[in-house]
């Protein structure tokens, strides 16, 4: 058996053992049935987000990139009853399905999906005084990661947790000059940002080799 098959098999075992969430599983199935791309977080990673939100005691969470709401539902599970997660999604069809999945999971009181380009919605969130957020999950169009990260800092609490998906898969090892938007330069931007402590964790999963960036905003909570 190849190493890759091992990763996948073991990732499935981990998911079976540790990662059951009926609402999220239903969202995954519905997203698949709708023919939308299967690019949700691998289940153990979705569970990790829930655990991080829980460790941070997050009451307000911001997500950029909703798809069918799989990761949204997982993070919403860590919220207290008065908590709130706002997820931003560019595609109306994705947002509609996510709302239906969130509703079916019984989370429509805590989880809200907003439709539009994230870079249009983020200034509006700021204008209406949403946040500060104790956790931000960035998982949309990768070329805007640096801009999203900057927004995450503007809208977040000291000691907020920021997670950015797919920073390895997207050209992390490309040392050619692809300009400001490649993953390597994004990592470099964060590494040099004095406002955060951060690292990147490489991962293997059912989705293969990838990695996520994990940052904590400096300051007194
Ligand atoms: N976080 C989800 C997966 C998100 S997939 C999960 O793990 O379950 C990425 C999503 O980002 C897609 O639905 C895509 O439509 C959305 N997206 C892409 N560009 C965007 C943009 N500029 N603004 C908001 N959403 C965007
Ligand atoms: C893919 C995976 C992701 O997690 C994502 O956010 C976007 C695309 C992919 O496998 O192509
Ligand atoms: Mg992703």
The secondary-structure class comes to: alpha/beta
Number of DSSP E strands: 7
**Heterogens:** S-adenosyl-L-homocysteine, 3,4-dihydroxybenzoic acid, magnesium ion
- Reading the helices and strands in chain order gives HHHEHEHEHEHEHEE
Helix content: 40-55%
Work out the radius of gyration.
Answer: 17 Å
Beta-sheet strand percentage?
15-25%
The general outline is globular
**Ends distance:** 48 Å
Low-confidence stretches: 177-181
- Give the neighbour order of strands across the main sheet: 3-2-1-4-5-7-6
Give the structure's gist in a few sentences.
The chain is of the alpha/beta class and 221 residues long. Helix content is 41%, strand content 23%. Residues 177-181 have low confidence and may be disordered.
């Amino acid at each position: 058996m190849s190493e890759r098959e091992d990763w996948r098999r073991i990732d499935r075992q981990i998911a079976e053992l540790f990662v059951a969430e009926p609402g999220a599983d239903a969202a995954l199935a519905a997203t698949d049935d709708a023919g939308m791309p299967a690019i949700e977080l691998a289940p153990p990673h979705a569970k990790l987000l829930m655990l991080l939100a829980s460790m941070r005691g997050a009451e307000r969470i911001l997500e950029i990139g909703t798809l069918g709401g799989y990761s949204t539902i997982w993070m919403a599970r860590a919220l207290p009853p008065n908590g709130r997660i706002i997820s931003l999604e560019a595609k109306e069809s994705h947002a509609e399905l996510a709302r239906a999945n969130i509703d079916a999971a019984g989370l429509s009181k805590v989880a809200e999906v907003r439709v539009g380009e994230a870079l249009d919605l983020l200034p509006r969130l700021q204008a209406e005084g949403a946040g500060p957020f104790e956790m931000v999950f960035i998982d949309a169009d990768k070329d805007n990661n640096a801009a999203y990260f900057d927004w995450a800092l503007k809208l977040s609490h000291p000691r907020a947790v920021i997670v950015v998906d797919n920073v390895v898969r997207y050209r992390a090892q490309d040392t050619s000059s692809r300009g400001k938007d490649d993953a390597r330069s994004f990592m470099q931007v964060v590494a040099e940002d004095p406002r955060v402590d951060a690292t990147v964790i490489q991962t293997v999963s059912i989705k293969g080799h990838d990695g996520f960036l994990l940052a904590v905003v400096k300051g007194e909570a």
